[in-house]
Every structure is written in C-alpha cells, then in structure tokens.
Amino acid sequence: MRTSLNVPQEVLDSFDETWNEEGLESRSRAVREAMQEYIERHNRLEEIEGETVAAVAFDYEHTLVIEELHTVQHTFEDVIGTTQHMHHGDWCLETVFCTGPAKRIRELVYQLRDFDAVGRVNVMFLLPVS
C-alpha cells in the first residue's frame, strides 16, 4: 500500500541520514520498522494495569502550548502529584510525577502526545502498587 505523510524537512533529513547509516535498503523499510516500534511501545503502555506510580517527561515549545498544557495538568490533577520544569530558550522540559490508575496516566500521556508543539512524551512506570 502506498501512502503519503507531511513531515518537516529537518525531520525527514535526519530520518534519511539515520536509516542510511544503519544500512537499511530503503526509506520504506525504515518507516515500516519505525511503525512497528511505535506499535510495540503502545502495546507495552497498554499492558500496565491497576494502581501505579509513573514519571512522564515531555518537551514543548513554551509560547505555542503553555496555556493548553496548564489546562491538561489541571484536568489530571487527580493523578499528578508534582511537576519539575526547566526552561531552555523557547523550549521547556517538564516531568510530571503521577500516582493512580494506569488507565488515567495513559490518558494523560495520549493527550500530551496529541499537541503539535510537544516534541516527545516518554513515560516510565516506576512500580505497580500492590
């Protein structure tokens, strides 16, 4: 199946450089592999059940999304215990430390990943609460 994507030029250039350095046969092969890794990461995130503790780290372009992120954080104050924030020019790095149902923390992760001005969102579940 053929498809098309809108990708910023700098991301495409970096992606092409990466798959070429790895010696893959084509961009299509690299995209299929990246998609498979994305699916596996999603499945691992979905497997976490019950009460848990997590750290969610994300970076974002401050001026484009700060008000929306504050709204999200207030929406999820039932699981967010504390935050750590660092400025780096126009970009910020933030970590929110969460305790609560894994399902609710996943909802937070998915909502953060849906913002264009958020670069990356990584979650680490620290321990399931017994």
Could you walk me through the main structural features you see in this protein, from its secondary elements to its overall organization?
This protein has 130 residues and is an alpha+beta fold. The chain folds into two domains: 9-45; 49-128, Alpha-Beta Plaits (2-Layer Sandwich). It has helices at 9-21, 27-47, 62-75, 102-113; strands spanning 51-61, 80-88, 91-101, 118-128. A four-stranded antiparallel beta sheet has the order 2-3-1-4. The longest helix is centred in the first third of the chain and has 21 residues, at 27-47. It is globular. The mean pLDDT is 92. Belongs to the transcriptional regulatory CopG/NikR family. Keywords: DNA-binding, Transcription, Transcription regulation.
